[in-house]
Amino acid sequence: MLSMRNVTIYSRGADPEAPLLRIPALTVQAGEVVTLMGPSGVGKSTLLRWLLGEPLPNFHISGQVCLHDVDLTCLPIGQRQLGMMFQQGGLFPHLTVAENCMFAQGARSQQPRLQQQQQALTQLRALGLGDKWHAYPESLSGGQYARIALLCTLLAEPQAMLLDEPFSALDAALRQEVRSWTFTQLEEKHMPTLLVTHDKADARGRILTVNGHREVVDA
Fold it and tell me: How far is CA 199 from the centre of its chain?
């Protein structure tokens, strides 16, 4: 379960009476997808990056975030056990697919290195992408990249997932396919998932919107 309480986002130096985004309380249950929609510039992506634990010097953010009743608010990014899929990117361009997979596993996996490699290659083959093991990200198609980026994220064994417009860079022919595959993977792992999107076709589960007072409410 991923939960937030009294989260408020301000631009640094802005009027304290004019927050970008306010979330009084929000809980995402295990296996649930919650979609957050709203206009550009209200802090939706900033919220995800704050949850992940990224430093955000241009913003002042207060509030609490918990994962399975463990307070993450002051923990560094490496201890939060949150995964994230971005609108673009997610793989290190200077590393092969194999090296990206191994890097993802290395942080948390207790398995021997060879076993990690075999696990990653087995899952890559299950996607029909075993021939991309030694490929570099720049040689992948959009659909291949998106699948492998999610695979790497899952290999890091996150306990919750954050999705920031993850399908918007795909063309129409691939978007539905990759979207369906992604949500199937997350559902099978019973992972609480918070999705930010502008596209209603991408929305899943409970849909929240940002109202005129910059507060997150049920759609």
Answer: 16
Q: How far apart are CA 87 and CA 166, in angstroms?
A: 4
Letter for the amino acid at 78? G
Cβ atoms of 108 and 83 within 8 Å: the answer is no
| C-alpha–C-alpha distance, residues 90 and 202, integer Å | 19
Contacts of 156 (CB under 8 A, 6+ apart): 83, 104, 105, 107, 108
pLDDT attached to residue 211: 87
In order of their start, the domains of the chain are 2-218 (3.40.50.300)
pLDDT at position 23: 96
Q: What residues of the chain score a pLDDT lower than 50?
A: none
Predicted local distance difference test score (pLDDT) of residue 122: 92
Strands 193-196 and 160-164: parallel
